Structure formats: structure tokens, C-alpha cells
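Blackboard transcription, Thursday session:
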Amino acid sequence: MTDSKYFTTTKKGEIFELKAELNSDKKEKKKEAVKKVIASMTVGKDVSALFPDVVNCMQTDNLELKKLVYLYLMNYAKSQPDMAIMAVNTFVKDCEDLNPLIRALAVRTMGCIRVDKITEYLCEPLRKCLKDEDPYVRKTAAVCVAKLHDINAQLVEDQGFLDTLKDLISDSNPMVVANAVAALSEIAESHPNSNLLDLNPQTINKLLTALNECTEWGQIFILDCLASYLPRDDRESQSICERVTPRLSHANSAVVLSAVKVLMKFMEMLPKDLDYYGTLLKKLAPPLVTLLSAEPELQYVALRNINLIVQKRPEILKHEMKVFFVKYNDPIYVKLEKLDIMIRLASQANIAQVLAELKEYATEVDVDFVRKAVRAIGRCAIKVEQSAERCVSTLLDLIQTKVNYVVQEAIVVIKDIFRKYPNKYESVIATLCENLDSLDEPEARAAMIWIVGEYAERIDNADELLESFLEGFHDESTQVQLQLLTAIVKLFLKKPTETQELVQQVLSLATQDSDNPDLRDRGYIYWRLLSTDPVAAKEVVLAEKPLISEETDLIEPTLLEELICHIGTLASVYHKPPSAFVEGSRGVQHKRLPPRAGSGESTESPDVGQSGPSEAPPAVIPSQGDLLGDLLNLDLAPPTATVPSVQPSMQMGAMDLLGGGLDSLLGGDIGGSPSMGAGLGAAPAAMPASLGGAPAVGGGLGDLFDLGGGVGMPTGSYVAPKTVWLLAMKAKGLEISGTFARRGGIIQMDLSLTNKAMSVMTDFAIQFNRNSFGLAPAGPLQVLTPLSPNQTIDVSLPLSTSGPVMKMEPLNNLQVAVKNNIDVFYFSCQYPLSLLFVEDGKMDRQVFLATWKDIPNDNEAQFQIKDIHLNSDVASNKLQGSNIFTIAKRTVEGQDMLYQSVKLTNGIWVLAEMRIQTGNPNYTWMCWRRPHVRECVSQNDSPVIS
Amino acid sequence: MIHSLFLINNAGDLFLEKHWKSVISRSVCDYFFEAREKAVEPDNVPPVIRTPHHYLINIYREKIFFVSVIQTEVPPLFVIEFLHRVAETFQDYFGECSESTIKDNVVIVYELLEEMLDNGFPLATESNILKELIRPPTILRSMVNTITGSSNVGETLPTGQLSTIPWRRAGVKYTNNEAYFDVVEEIDAILDKSGTTVFAEIQGVIDACVKLSGMPDLTLSFMNPRLLDDVSFHPCVRYKRWESERVISFVPPDGNFQLMSYHISAQNLVAIPVYVKQNISFFETGSSGRLDITVGPKQTMGKTVEGLVVTVHMPKVVLSANLNATQGTYNYDPVTKILVWDIGKLNPQKLPNLKGSLSLQSGAPKPEENPSLNIDLKIQQLAISGLKVNRLDMYGEKYKPFKGVKYVTKAGKFQVRT
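(Written on the board underneath:)
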């Protein structure tokens, strides 16, 4: 007789029958009925209708029946809160039972009933259980505090449970300690700043003692908790390391990895010349290797972490290359990770072995894996200079196999090798050219074309080769088209006599027959360059390129440090800081490695040394309240001081504001408005300096821009009229008004300085306080002539975003200090956030789609823009001028939906959906991962679109 | 911590769900199904899957996916280890871990899961504690239960639960006191075409079956403990004594358990017991190929190699094999493209050979990939690393136990490239 009988049903209706059985007088029948109910529950059937009947069975001395009823209660109490109260009495009674098992069971189950009303009844029993004489009950109660906190955090704090829980860290029983630590850690996660786990040398000592005696799971909690402690000095650090090291031999891999985390972190504090440091390094290797003989799922997580460890401390595993060799029956996710680590460990000493292996992998069945193996050979060549030659010959061998995808992948990496070692391996070009016809992937075609263009002077039939690609120009992907255009221009500059016709052909294809703005722009630029000044063209197009870096795929050092502190967590699996993906914005604290003791070492990470790990690095986290207020004000009068013209009054009201904004932008589009004129005039300054040299080129560019305007190219971004920032009376006669603009990718602060005093002003200088997006002057304030009384001078100050960052209130506030020969003056102004929208903010459609799905609902904001009569195309064009890019458009029930992306200078993406009904566009802003930005962004959008 | 668990079979049916916090809709598994479909082979499903609001961490054991849902930052290894523990517990309780046994014992499964995790924190995962709380089903017990109405749930607190040796229950009594240790070593190796070792290592475990009364304190020592530099111990082993004296001192759990596992790395020389001479080639024309494999003894330390099986994963275009084996039988499965040659005992005087032709799909190009050979073998009474147990001493109890040690060497992932 098995439990499968509980799944069988009769025709009468299951629920009806169960109800009858549950109310039966016979104990046995009752129990069987409850089992049937549980069986239905396990497969996801809704049996909540039986709630009162099941709860009636609760009052029993049969422990099994009691447990079964509890199982049911936990699942369904939430859907029947009023009925759940019925159970309270039994719980309270059970908490007084003589049998500790029953006491623990009651307090445990009660915590799982996630009904608000029950929690108040839970407090007294829980308080008793936390002080119970039986450690089993205490350890269960410790977890219960975490459960209760999840339901009602305030209650837990008010009742003082947190303090009781902290006391349990000093409990005599190690299991109780472990559970208390686990509960506190979980609670601390939702209170990042609450300093719940107040770690000091005494508590650390208690934890270390408990570590040796508690269960494996408890050890994980304790180790993770230890990892967040910062030892006072290197001696304490060493003593903790010594006591943690035995955990490396634990059979549970999670314990091992948590121990590795503690050691990797605390090792940072040990002086490198210490003997113990070397011993520790040696001890770390074997457990990491052992992790690789576990089940594949464990291997995967281990490998992701080893990837980090190898980047931080390559010396640990430098002799263990062979354990990362791929076995043919490893799952694909393990294979790919191993390959990655092999490359990281590759060095001159072991490169022969590695190459032999990689070549072996290139003949495997799995296409993804083979491709990655081929690519890995190229990465080896770039990483280990001495091996480059062998890598190239290995790649050539692989090309000889003629396996299509192998050949293509090989050509892509050979291109990179050429970029690392120019003019060294061009002898292989002939072999590459033989395979021209078999290339069908854009990346491989583009790579091949790049090679032909780059070495055009050494390839006799370069023109023929490129011409053959040109035939199907319009069917190629953008990547190939751009590459082909550049390659042919290079060819022309190298062999001008024979290729004139070819270059004409490609330029006209690119500029006249193509819809792609990037291609067209590049075409025009080449065209102008070639027609005005071939010498300059040569300097630009054939300029010496920077070599590609050795390891472009290394994790950036500060991120790596943070990830090392999170070894064994999800962050370490995804190689992203926890703040980037942990659900909600629970304000995760950034962790840093501790500074090393001893003199010579502190240079390794100087800024870490200063700030210390307890201080969170500056982040842009505004308080929600204020911004919400701002958002509500939005429709009436945005605080972003976009009040038009010279009027200093901030209280102009909504009518004027909208009117002013509308005028200037609409005007701008037509081309007549002064603000737009300024935008165009300034544009050439934004072009690369190398072009600026020849005056003829400048004219040509002007032409180019006219042309662009003619075909309806998006014009520059919206520029608000200047406002007065500093009143003369407050600044000893100096009046400053200004605005911000973004021109050709450069942020500029336009200032008008007026001298209203009696004497001449000289020696101007400007400085910004730290601000949210790191805005800083990119050069000095250029006021060349002295400013005589009653004179006004206009200056444009280019800004960079690489300055120091500090969160401001509001987010877009900027505090400025201006100095002249008289005094220093301070004022603050606010810049429109659209200033920070960068030009490459156009997200790939696929990425957009994926990201859009991923955005938590909390990060969404919605608002309406009133009184605008634009159709979607015009709106999208305008927005593009402000670097708000339309990714997709669809029409639903007469509404146009535009999906848009924006990227800020600090890399934050904002995604938006815009619904346009006539006269009533409705915006949904979705901000990726950083909810606080959205409010600020939304304020700014009104002037831009109107 | 661990929020919920879903069990899903190979066909994609979700047949059990358990929630430790609030109920999470099973629709969250759609993300898993998506990944499952993408992976084609069930083995290739990535262990950690990210969804907008949760993370799914899964393992694949015995044709069942154990999919756990987590919501906050939890060490993934912790979750994976726990899931393996769940699978092992089912195995331990029901003899096998399969969909049908889980369905047959669904109530016990549910009780077990509830006992193993509280609010996502592991509670009791030691087999002997669980068995005191919830008794495993036996035919006898279920009959007795039906007649007497007694239950299979323990009424008292397990004794081991809180002691500093949670793995052992008190009051164990046996009439025959015995302790057996199996030293099992597996060779993981990759040999290249020419027979040279590319990589080899030994994964060893010592499995114990200890049935001793009372609270015995055991000490196990080796003849050559220096071989072991990379070890993982059962929590019962006193690490300090291992560090200082290189002996294994422990109070054993009752019954079967794994005392330790060790790893002898690629840097030490690993003896390879057999060599394989092989030649598998495909002709440019004629849609055919040849196969010739010979296996011979290499470093067997004078023992006999048994259970020898050679498995070849053929390229997709191989339709059939017409071969001749001098020893054992061969079988080619044209669906999975796997050729299995079961040799049995290796006779050093007359080396087994498998030879013949392969026929390919007509018109198909010559296969690009090289097939790979897998070797399976067994050597009794030998630990290939040379590890030897010296003696086992017992303290704390008066009786004289019966002791025994067995050695066996097997092939693990033993691969020969062609």
C-alpha cells in the first residue's frame, strides 16, 4: 500500500468526499483524509475550501496528525486569515507542552502562518521559547524571530526580540548560536545600516568556538558572518585565518567556499613577507581543486568563483592547469567555464600544453564550445607574446580543416592578433584569402575585410577582393558595410591610381542608396575629407591605431575586490555587484577588501585605505520623500528652474513655462530660433581636433551639417534659455546667468557674466562642488579680457563627467564657486537631466526587450504630459535630438506606443514607453535598476518634448 | 534562504511542490522550462537561472530536476548541497529516488521536507536524526501501522539533535559488533592518441559501515598517510589530530556513512592500469570507415583487471558497425550512436581486440569530429594510489569488534582521445 492511493478520486466530487471523511469519528479515517488533502496540496491543487474541517482535526494527541494539520495550515492560513485565528489557542497551549519537540513544533509553525492578526498572539509564546531551557526550542525560536520580522518588522523591534536574539549569540549551545547568526543575518539584509551584527573581538571569539561544533549549515552562516568582520590588525586577522583553515577540509562544498571567502578577504591584511601568508596560499589550492570533482552543478558555481580568485591571486592555482582540462562528458556550462579559466592561467610555462588541449577541443562536436576554443587560442596569442607564433600556426592548421564555423572563428581572432602584433604575421594573409568565399557570418566577413583593407598594399588583388564584396553591398549587415567602406577608402589612399572608380562606387552606395545614418555619415565624412584634403584624409584614416590591450576581459579591479568579498554568493556567479541585481533596492552595502597592514603594501589600493570598508562608497541614493514631492509638483511648476529668459522670478507659473519651452523648441526645429542657431554654430568645435586644422575642412563640415539638416536629421538637443543664477547685489556687482547645453556629445555650461559694479573685474575662475553625476569643468573659465563696468561677456565652459561624485539634493543640483579679483561667490543651480543623456543611448532591440522584462515593478513611474499636439514621428524625432532614442514603435487601438531608451553618462539606462493619443501623451518611465533616477528624469522630460 | 522546491520529471511535468515561506506560483517554473528547452540535453541545463524576481537553482538527479526558488542573496552552493542532500535522503528512505517512489510516499516526502528546512534554514539533514523523527517505510511497519493505528512519526526529540555529536544517536546496541571500511579509488584520466597521459588524478573515498554498540571512539591510521594532502572529512573526524598526528580519530555515526574523501592530484604520478591501442578512421569516399581497438594491461600491480568495458561515442553519420571481437560482446546502438564493447576480465596472455568496418550514411561528408573512447574497469583488492590502512583501534567500549578493510579501484572519467 502506497501513498499513491491518496491521489485517486471518485466521481462524487473529491472535496465533498474529503469533507465527510475529515469529519468522521474514526481517528484513522481522519488521518487518512488529511493525508489525501496533503497529497492534493503537493501537486498544487487548491484544497483551501477544506480549511475549517482540517483545522478541526488539530486538537489531537497524535503527533503525526498534528504535524499534517500544521503542514496544511502553513500553506493556506494566508487565504483564510479569520479561520486561522481558530488555531491560535492550540498553538499557545502547545507552547507550554512538556515535550520540547511539541513546544518547538508549535512555535515554528506559528511563525509560518503569515497572518498579521496571529502575530500579536505569537509574541508571548515566542518570548518564552527564546528563553526555554531546552536548546532545541531556543534554536527554533531564533529562526522564528526572522520569520516574524519578515511579516511585521516593527513589531519585532518594539517587542525587543532583536536584543534577545543578539544575546543568543552568546548561548552555550553552538546550534543556537548558529541559528541566531543566521536569523540576524537575514534580518540585517533588509536593514543594511542597522548594525545588528555588532561584531567585536569577543563575539568573534564566540562565533569561532561555535564554528567547530555546530552543523555544516550553521558553519556556513557563521563563516559568512565572519567575512563581514574587519579585524583590528594583522595579528587578529592571522589568528582568525588559523581557526578557519580546518574548514577547508569539510565535506560540504558550501562550507569550503565560505571558508575560502573568509581567508581570501583576511589574507589581504597580512603582510606578504610573513611566512604564514605563503602557507595560507598553499593551503587554498587543494580544496579548490577538490571542488572540481564534485557534481557538475557544484563545479559550475565553484568555477565561477575560481575565475574570480584566479584574477585576484593567480599564484594560488598556477600549477593546477590540468584540473581545468575539459572532459568530453562535462556539461556544456562546465566546459565553457573551464575554458575561460584555462586562458586566465595560461603563461609562458604552460602554453604548449594549453594550446595542444585547445586544438583538441576545436575538433569536438558542440559548436559553441568549439567556437570558444578557437577564440581562446587567439586570446592566448594576445596574452602570452612568446606563444603568438605557435597560436597563429595552430589557427592556420584549424583553417585547413575547412570546417566552416572553425574557419570563420579563426579569422575573427586572427584579426585581433594582427591588431596586437601589427606587421608580423601578414604572411598568413594568403591562406586567409583562400577562404573568402566560405565566410557567411557578418563578424567573420567584417574581420576579413578589415584585414584586406589594413594590408591592402601587400595584397596584389586587394581591389578585386573588395570589389567582390561590393556587389551585394545592400544585403550585407551594417557591420560589414561600414568595414567595407573604410577598407576601400584605405585601399584608395594606399593605391590611389587604380581604385578611383571603386571608391566612387562605395561612397555613392553609402551616401545615396543607404538608409543607415551611421553609414551615411561615415560616407560623407570620408567624401569630404578626400575631396578637400587628401593629405589630412591620409592622416586620419591611416593613422596609427592603439594596440589592443592584453586582457580586455578582465574584471575591473574595484568590482573584483567587491566580488571577492562576495565569494560563494549569487553575485560571484554572475560577476556583478549585488547592488546590481538583488531584488528591490534594499540598499546593499558595498564591501571592500580590508587594507593591508605594513608599509609597502598600502599603495596597492590607496583609496581603499583611506575610506575604510565601513564607509559605503558615494552612491546616488536620494531620499524617496522629496523626489516624490517633486514628481507631484511636476505638472504645475517643475523645480528645475527652466524659467525662460532674463526674468529672475521663479514663480512665473505653469502657463509661461510651457509657452516659453514650446516656442523655443518648435522654433529650433524650423531653424530660425536664436537658441538653435547657437547650437549649430557651436557644433564644429565638437569635432575631433585633428580635423580642425585645415580651414577648408571646417567649411566642408559646415556643408555637411546643412545637408544633414536638409534630409530631416535630428537636430541638436533642447537648450533652455538662460536664467539668472547669481544676483549682482549678492556678488559685489557680478551678475551671472546661464544655462546648460549638450552639443555634439559635449556638455557645456553657457554663462553670461555682467559687470554691474564700478570697477573692472579680472582673474575669473570657476569650481564645482562634488555632485551627483561628477560634473566638473573640463577646462579653465576663459574670460580673456577684463570685464569693464556694464559690459556683458558670454562664455561657454565645456564640462566633463569625470569629477568626484556625491549625491545631491535634489539630484541635479550643482553648487558652483566663481572667483574674480574681488572675492569668491557661491551659487547653486540645477541642470536638466537630459544634459546627461549620451549619444550612444540607443539600446539594441533584443537587449531592450530583455531588460524591459527584467525591470521590477517598483522601478516604474508614470506621468502625463498635457497639451501637446504632436504625432509620434515628430515626437520621436525631437526626442532623438535630446538623445532619447526610439527603439520600437507599435500602434494599439489608435494609440501610438513608442519604446525608448536613454543612457546617462554614468551608464545608467532608462527605458520608457510613451503612449500618444491626440493631445494626451502618457509616459511610463521604467528605470533600469536605479529607481531613484526616474523621478528626476521625469521632471526633465516635459521641456524636451514640448 | 530557500523559498520553495519544485520537483519536475524529465517530461516536464511538475509533480511536487513545497513552500517554506509564502506560496510562490508554479508559473515561476516557466523560466526553468525555457532554459530546459534551450539546453536540449537535460544535463546541460544551467544550474542557476535568473528570473525577474527570483533565482532558480536546480540539480538534475535520477531523471528528476530539483528546482529551488530563492529570492534573496543565498550562497548557491549551499542550495545545491542541500538539494543533493534531499535527493540522498529520498534514496536512503525509499531505496531509490524516482518519480514513482516519491509519489508513492508523498506524505513522508512532505514530512521530510518540512523537517529538513525551517523558514529556508536547514534544520535536520543527518539521516539518523531524520530516521528518529520520521521512520522510513517498510512493508512490515506499514502493515503494523494499518492494524494498530500507530504512526511513523517519532514522538520524542531525537537524542543526537543537540549533542556535540549530532550524527550519532545514543543507546545503540548490537549483538555482533562490526566495523567495515571500503577504500574506493576512481581514476580520472585523459589519454591522448599516442597513449600519453594528458591528465590523471585519483578520487578516493573511504566508505564505512559501522555497527558498534554504545559510544565507540575509533582511530584509523594509515601506512602511508603522506599520500593524502587534499582531504575532506565527515564532520565526525577530529581535524586537529589529523593535522598533528595524521590519524583519523572519530566517534562514528551509526550505520553507513562516508568517512572521508581524498584527491590525489595530477602532479603525483598516477598509475594507469591499462593501455589502449586504437585506430578509428573514415575514408574520404565510399561512406565507410575502419575501427581497430586493442586493450592491454599496463600498471596493474599484479592484480587482475575486471569489468572492462570500452564505450565509443561515434559521429552522427555512422549507421552501423560490422566488427569482430576476440573477447566479449559488442553492441552498436544506431540511435544514440554509442558503441559498447563489454570485455570482462583482461587476460594478459591473449589481448582482446575489436576490429572491423563502419558504414556511414551514404553521401554524407567525412565526419569532422574525432570519436572519444571511455574505459570502465575494476580492480579488486587494490588501491591504485598505494594507500593502505595500518590499523583500527577502538576506545571507550569494552567489547572486541570485528574489523575489516576492502580495497577497490575503478575507472572514473577515463577517456582516450582518438
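Lecturer's comment: The first helix of chain A runs from residue 14 to 22.
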